[in-house]
Amino acid sequence: MSAPATTEAPVSAPVGTGRRARPDRPVRDPDPVRNAAYWARIDRIVDAAPPLTDEQRAVIRTAFHQPQHRRAAA
Question: C-alpha distances in angstroms, 45 versus 5, 52, 54?
């Protein structure tokens, strides 16, 4: 049994959260109701987390923007 190729995600980022809606989310459960519940739970967890500090953002940005030769060495 294969999961549908696309998902009709009923979720959108609440206004004022600074997050974009993710209509392209992967299907985690073939049952649309359970899939929507899964992503609603993820949204609640993310919304409850404190915002990142500028220092945390810089560390994440640095990790993903390393020069190619440093990534190959790791």
Answer: 26, 14, 21
